[in-house]
Every structure is written in structure tokens, then in C-alpha cells.
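Let us work through a complete example step by step.
Step 1: write down the sequence.
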Amino acid sequence: MMSAIPSAAIPPVSRLPPELLIDIFVSCSDTPSDALTPVLLGQVCRYWRDVTYLSPRIWQRIYLYEHRPVSISHDQALWWIYKSYPLPFDVRIEAQSIDMILPLLSPVLSDMGRLGRLTISGAHQEVFDFSKFNFDRNRACHIDGLNMLVKGVSAIGALGVNPDSNGSDDRPFSEVFRVHAPSDGISEVSLHLPVYALPLALVMKPIPVTSLCITEFSLDVTTDVVRMLNFLRCMPLLETLHFAGWPQEGEPILPGLLLPVELPRLRVLLLRSTCSVRPLLSHIYAPALEELYLEHTNVDFALRVEPYITQQSPPEEGESDDEAHDFSQSPWSDQATGMGLRAFLRRSRPPLQVLHMDYADMRTKDFRWCFDRLERLREFRIVGSDMSDRVVAMLAPYRRRSFSFGLMDLKEPGDPRGSWAVRLPSLTRLLVWHCQRISGDALVEALQERVRFTDWAMEEGMGETMETVVIAGCSEFTHQHSTELAETLGERLRGSG
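Step 2: predict the structure and record it as C-alpha cells.
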């Protein structure tokens, strides 16, 4: 019979009770290191492995380093979060480039219910203690909004990409985390990151933020549409998306590089000051979108026709010149905006309720194509447009033989020739500001006819009518026109003249 091993032959550390060994391992794991300490301790012997794998306390400190392959950091964060359950955990990120903060942080953002202290060191220094605020701990992600400021090559030093640069005082955000903490409610936190460029999708884990704002800081930045769309794939739960760029073109977009991004929960989309309206709208699938804001997208220079468009066969519907030949100061961007909106509506078929176009024009035939399909639009705002009287006339009722939805299915008594219809049948609010190409006579005629018709239809229980009309800053719309239109609209005509 084999004799028992004498106790003197067993190393003293192996005779330590588990409770004391755990305290020692916790002390080792608390020291910042890229050595994956809990894993290394568990490789010494079976006893140590059992202790480390069964004790959540040993896994409560997560150290993520930029110099390590990002995939390893992602796996480490997810494993440490899992092993530390149900205890709180702290995270420390070491990044010499501020561009790497979000990629390293991305796996943590999906499981923040137990997150305590988050420390960022390197290019940016910050300590944020989540335990001090009244967050909704039932939510996986406490980040309500993500704000990305893309600064481009001029800010390489300021963002920490070049450690020898003296531009450290040029940081646009003093704090990455900003908290709104009402005294009687749930705290909200937003994440603000200045970056050289948007993170590549391959270094990101999906993050469940609901609001994203991307701002291009200067003319040194050119929009990389392919990179942006791939970045958006990392945020499938987005409900609000704002993008503000500069009116300049980026690199040509070759065929096969653009793939549609699915944002099934997106409700609000704003695109401002960018020449990339068409490729962005054409490749966003947002079937729940309710509000679309296009601002300052008109440009007075010729836009390049992207290679992915020129090589399409057959060409997209509407690609030909506008048959109306109406005047425009921005014909190239008008076509790009119109074709982008057409593609978006065809792909997504959203229940759009608000369309705001601020110095963002389309061709006459694009307005008609869109008006024929926006059956749920309730509010249309147009600012600084070159749209012609032909577009205004589209708001008036017209005869139509086929029957359709709501007001599209109204028949005038005694008229066997067909039905009366209106485009934008759910429209209740119309705001027209600083549109100098439309005449007062056209506005009065179209809106009087429309309101008389829709008022009658609403009395019959068959549709909506106008509730608010604002016409302001239009030089051809005089006080006399305002008085004449008020005879039909009454108090529904506001601030006009």
C-alpha cells in the first residue's frame, strides 16, 4: 500500500485555506498588469485552478491594453465580466491613441449593470465611478448617447496618435463621460470622443447605444462613406442618428464596397452639410424611420458621379435629367439628394411623419415621386428652396382614376370620370421659409384648393386636413396673398406674409 505523503513534503502555500489563498490572488489581480493574472495563477496547479475559477473576487479587475491584439482584449473583457458575476467589476484602459478607447471599451458597454470604476490612462486621463450615480441597473448599457468628433490629420498630435507632438492642449472634450443626474430621477450619461477617424468595424464589438452623433471637425476631414456605414453596423439598436460633415467630396466609391446597413429601430435621421447624402441614404435600411432632417446639403459645384453609380446596369429610375427644366442654383446636389431619397424610400418604406429640408433641394420630378409615396407624412418643412410653382401645385387636389389610401379614395359627387386625390394625404403642418422662386399666386391657389377639399373630406370622416400653415420670408408672397389665403385657412395660417 502506498504511504500517504508527509505533510512536510507539501508546499506551505498549498496548505493555505482557500479563503486566504483567494485574498492573496485578489491582491495579485489588483495590480495593473497585462499578464492576465487570474489565468496564469490557475495554470500553476489543479488546486489553484479550482480556487481561481470558483472565486468571482479574483476576476473583478479588468485591464485592457492597446498594445495587445484587440480581439484578445475583447475576449478577456467578456470572460472577466462573466467570471466576476455577480460581483461588481472595475475596468482600466491603457491607450496611447484616443482612437482605441472605444474599440477597447466596446465589449464592456454591453454589460454595464455591475460596472463600478472605469479608468482611462495614456493619451487621455480620466476616472469615472459609475457606482456614485443612480443609473438604471436593469439596463445593459448606461450610455444614452455617443458623440464622435472626427478631427482628421490636423489633430493627429492632439489626439495622442503622435506622442512627440505638443498639441495636447487642443483636446475638444475635457471629459469623455458626461452625466446628467437629476435629483429625483435616473441618471443619464453620454460618451464624447474626439478621434482621428471612425473606428474600423473589425476592432469593434456591437454596442447597444440608442443615440449617435458624428461630427466632422474641419475641412481636413473627408467623409469615408464605406467606413461610416460599417461603423453603423456596430450599433444595431440606434434610434437617433445625426451626421454633420463638410460640403466636399471624399474618395471615389468603387462598386462592391457599399453594403446596406440595417438599423431597424432608427426613428430620427439628420444629415447636415455633406456631399454624401446619396450614398448614405441609398444604403441605410431604416423601416421604422419617422423623422428625416436634411440640412445645408445644396452645393453650387458639380458633384462627381460615383463609380458605383456609373457602372450600374440598368441605371436607377430617375437618373435622367429633370424633364421640367426648372431653375436651380444647385442642380448637381438636387439630383443627388433626390436620388438618395428615392432609394431610401424604395428600400425602407418607412412610416415617415416629418420631412425637414433646410437648404436641401431636389429636382421637380423627385418632389413628385416622393410626394406620391409619403402617404403618412404629417409635417413638411422646406427652407431656402429653389422649388418652382410646379412643386407647389402638387399640393392641390387632382383627378385620379385609381383608388388608394385615405384621401386618395375620394370621389366627387356626380363626377363619373374618376376620383379626386391629394398627394401627402396625411399632411397637417406645412412650413415654407425663404423660398424665393415660388409665387404668391401659386401658393394661394394650391393651398386654398387643398384645404377646401381636405376640410370637406375630414367632415366626411375620410382623411386629414391642414392644421398649421406658415409661409415666411418668401418675397413673392405678399400681404395681399396672406389676406386672401387667410379667408380659407383662418387661424391656421400663422406668421405669414
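Step 3: interpret the result. The longest helix spans residues 440-459.
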